[in-house]
Amino acid sequence: MQAYTVYEAPDHAGDRIDRGENLVFVKDGFSWGAFLFAPIWMLIHRLWWPLLGYIVVVVALQLLGLAVGRDQAWMPLLALGINLVVGFEANSLRRWTLERKGWSMIGATTGRTLAECERAFFDNWLPAQPMISTPHSEPAAARRAPLGSLSQLFGARS
Question: Which of 25, 38, 57, 73 is the most exposed place for a label (fewest CB within 10 A)?
């Protein structure tokens, strides 16, 4: 059984179909991609701060290994341990980054596959959403009737 949390952008579209297409499903649990290819996985998901932290930790451990002057045979095991931690925390880092950017968690869902989770979420979420709503970032003046005169076109007030 898989579990996903669902996030919505702060400047979501007014149409519920467009809103639904822009939702992000973040899986709970271990990430094999992040475990095997941590820096590349972070780049793909645009996790800049976690990537910077990963690089700092790896460089610091390399410098520590050089300073101690011991055999470097333990370094691959240490790198494996770091990637294991990244694999377990990768999706939490994605959630943290989304929340930092202003995204809001609007729900959670479970299922056997991602497609089943999406289906279950949208079955409950779509009926509760209006067909078309005004975006939060659009000012009230912009929602009025379309431009009808040159004074409105050039911003003059009447």
Answer: 73
DSSP letter for 100, please: H
Q: Which residue has the tokens 């095991």?
A: 77
Q: Taking the domains of the chain in order of start, what are their residue ranges?
A: 2-153
- Measured distance CA(17)–CA(20) in Å, rounded: 5
pTM for the full predicted model: 0.71
- Residue by residue, pLDDT tens for the chain (158 residues) are 899 999 999 887 677 788 888 899 999 999 999 999 999 999 999 999 999 999 999 999 888 888 877 667 778 888 899 999 999 999 999 999 999 999 999 999 999 999 999 999 999 988 887 777 555 544 443 443 444 443 443 444 43
Neighbour-count burial of 31, counting CB atoms closer than 10 A to its CB (0-12 exposed, 13-18 middle, 19+ buried): buried
